[in-house]
Q: What sequence folds into this?
């Protein structure tokens, strides 16, 4: 089902702001958005590059808002992408399929199989090169290495054990509670990727040496920095730059790894690829659109940049011209959203330069038929997650928990959790209905459990995260049903709901830092892409115009922050209800450090109904709740204690949250059972940009995060002076 819908909110912002964005000066670097000269498709020396981006575990079709604000109830999913890939391959056999980041994370099917559910169908697509994204590290280093690297012998934390090991037949040694006594790789490990993975900026790191010896150097690179594929007589070098934000996520993601931005490595790897005869340099990068545009400005050897991480949609390619003594030298930058699109870039190259190109952002809409073979794989992987005779309970064993313990799901993903009047999506930088509902759910639970909390002293935040599936609302003529699967798509991690105290000053400084991450005029300092969600008792007035910082001493973007109508007091202590990633220090709640008195909300399990293979039932959202202290509060992460898995005296991470911790989806299930989502209660208005949100200089108003940030023009990294030889 398709329906044309004009997103009035985004259209109005774009219309009001377009005239207020000053033209930015361009000297040695010029940028335009366009298709360029069209090469002939399917021949004539044309190479077709396909961009598969940020699939985020969306293996089945779902609702989405596509081009021209068309609302489609049956878009995306791997089987539709497979159909489009086959069509492109049939049109031009001289092609490469390149996958950019965040594939094995982002849905309930991924959470409860540690990303394994998508691997059969992703392997079947015949990907030519893969770049990992930050969320591909979300299942811990053991799973990551076993999935994407040739070396699986490095001993790593036994805390990151997969519950899917129980699905293997008895007698293999994998079904022993408390351990994985592996006999064969196929029996006891996650599914191996059959495609090559590239990354120039991911390094091995010895945690024990790092904990005892200052300045321990980085180890060798985890992956090959690039591969070279020959296509139609041309050598195509595919270089990878993985995300540099992994260290700001849960500490368990980073264990045994270290990340750089790749800036220093890029020149040497480009030079090495050219020395091997590369005619075309293609970079796959999870640094985000702003950083990637800047890299293409500064590195004229890059011909094509397939950008990921920010989930932007570029209907027209961003074209950067870096002219030199030999004339024009174009670099192409594109992003292809999520699983609802397949990017197609047709290029011709001569003398190491692009001579023509054409970019097409192809929709995986309801009109695209699912590939039967891939659909069969999807159905096989989903049958235990949806209503029907094969449905099962699932448990995700979160970091540091005993094997078989963790967060349990015993409801089909197609079960309805609640209803919404407005359509729910995440297309805006500052505020979205989805995030408003989340924080309202968290703070509602916290105030019910602790009678000392009220609208004057308690609040909640949630990370802005990224784009997700769209939930079509009743206001747009749809059912407005919010399913259990939708909730996991919006919160696909294993975090625990936690309470903590912060001073108003610490919170304000943290929020200013997040705004700087999003709107910094130096693209290399941009990180993330969205502001936070805040509850109904809060209001913000922000200044984001490019006059900021007005002076060196007054550079803050938050003009006003209120709680229950009163200005947030920097000296007062407030209670924050938010998320805790298992294994992190307990002075940190949902990436906000400086917490005190961290404690958890503990629930009760259902006493009847289905159980998983461990005998677990899911949390009873109508049951009783209590506030409990952390199970451990010191020495939570200790690589010396674990000794890299060799003769350890204890685990790498200690358990902090209680066995029956409340998962964010539990809080949402509870809240939606008693509250419909409405525009009046959950709509925009909590975060107000008094001077508007800048429109991106590249890609027009459809781009969510302005690539130039929001700051004075003199701070922009616009001018790149070519080297003199």
A:
């Amino acid at each position: 089902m398709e329906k044309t819908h004009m997103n009035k909110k985004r259209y109005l912002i774009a219309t009001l702001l377009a005239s207020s964005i000053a033209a930015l000066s361009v000297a040695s670097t010029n940028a335009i958005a366009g298709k360029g000269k069209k090469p002939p498709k399917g021949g004539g020396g044309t190479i077709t590059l396909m961009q598969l981006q940020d699939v985020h575990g969306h293996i089945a079709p779902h609702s989405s808002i596509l081009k021209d604000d068309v609302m489609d109830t049956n878009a995306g999913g791997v089987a539709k992408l497979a159909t489009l890939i086959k069509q492109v391959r049939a049109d031009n056999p001289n092609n490469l399929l390149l996958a950019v980041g965040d594939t094995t994370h982002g849905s309930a099917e991924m959470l409860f199989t540690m990303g394994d559910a998508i691997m059969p169908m992703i392997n079947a697509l015949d990907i030519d090169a893969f770049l990992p994204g930050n969320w591909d590290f979300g299942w811990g280093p053991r799973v990551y290495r076993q999935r994407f690297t040739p070396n699986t012998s490095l001993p790593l934390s036994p805390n990151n054990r997969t519950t899917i090991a129980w699905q293997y037949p008895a007698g293999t040694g994998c079904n022993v509670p408390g351990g994985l006594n592996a006999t064969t790789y196929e029996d006891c490990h996650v599914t191996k990727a059959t495609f090559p993975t590239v990354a120039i900026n991911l390094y091995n790191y010895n945690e024990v040496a790092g904990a005892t010896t200052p300045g321990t150097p980085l180890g060798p690179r985890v992956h090959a920095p690039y591969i070279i594929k020959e296509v139609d007589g041309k050598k195509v070098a595919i270089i990878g730059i993985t995300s540099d934000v992994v260290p700001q996520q849960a500490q368990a993601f980073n264990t045994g790894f270290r990340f750089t931005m790749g800036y220093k490595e890029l020149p040497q790897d480009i030079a090495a690829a050219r020395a091997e005869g590369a005619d075309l340099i293609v970079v796959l990068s999870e640094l985000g659109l702003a950083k990637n545009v800047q890299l293409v400005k500064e590195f004229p050897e890059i011909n094509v940049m397939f950008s990921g991480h920010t989930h932007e949609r570029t209907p027209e390619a961003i074209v950067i011209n870096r002219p030199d003594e030999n004339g024009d030298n174009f670099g192409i930058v594109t992003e292809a959203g999520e699983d609802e699109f397949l990017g197609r870039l047709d290029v011709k190259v001569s003398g190491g330069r692009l001579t023509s190109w054409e970019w097409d952002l192809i929709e995986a809409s309801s009109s695209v038929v699912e590939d039967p073979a891939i659909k069969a794989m999807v159905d096989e992987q989903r049958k235990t997650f949806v209503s029907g005779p094969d449905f099962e309970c699932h448990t995700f064993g979160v970091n540091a928990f005993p094997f078989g313990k963790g967060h349990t799901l015993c409801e089909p993903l197609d079960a309805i959790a609640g209803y919404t009047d407005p359509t729910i999506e995440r297309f805006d930088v500052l505020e979205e209905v989805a995030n408003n509902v989340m924080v309202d759910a968290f703070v509602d639970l916290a105030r019910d459990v602790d009678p000392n909390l009220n609208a004057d002293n308690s609040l909640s935040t949630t990370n802005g995260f990224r784009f997700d599936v769209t939930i079509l609302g009743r206001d747009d003529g749809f059912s407005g049903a919010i399913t259990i699967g939708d909730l996991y798509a919006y919160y696909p991690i294993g975090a625990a709901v936690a309470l903590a105290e912060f001073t108003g000053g610490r919170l304000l400084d943290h929020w200013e830092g997040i705004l700087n991450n999003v709107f910094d005029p130096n693209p290399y300092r941009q990180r993330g892409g969205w502001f936070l969600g805040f509850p109904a008792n809060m209001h913000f007035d922000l200044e984001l115009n490019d006059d900021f910082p007005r002076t060196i001493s007054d550079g803050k973007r938050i003009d006003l922050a209120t709680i229950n109508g009163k200005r947030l007091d920097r000296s007062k202590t407030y209670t924050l209800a938010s998320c805790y990633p298992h294994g992190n220090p307990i002075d940190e709640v949902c990436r906000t450090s400086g917490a005190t008195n961290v404690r958890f909300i503990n629930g009760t399990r259902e006493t009847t109904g289905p159980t998983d293979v461990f005998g677990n039932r899911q949390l009873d959202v109508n049951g009783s709740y209590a506030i409990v202290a952390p199970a451990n509060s010191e020495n939570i992460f200790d690589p010396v204690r674990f000794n890299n898995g060799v003769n350890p005296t204890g685990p790498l991470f200690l358990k902090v949250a209680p066995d029956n911790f409340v998962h964010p989806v539990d809080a949402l299930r509870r809240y939606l059972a008693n509250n419909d989502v409405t525009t009046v209660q959950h709509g925009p208005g909590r975060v107000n940009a008094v001077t508007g949100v800048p429109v991106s200089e590249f890609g027009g108003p459809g781009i969510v995060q302005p690539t130039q940030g929001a700051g004075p023009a003199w701070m922009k990294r616009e001018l790149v002076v070519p080297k003199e030889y």
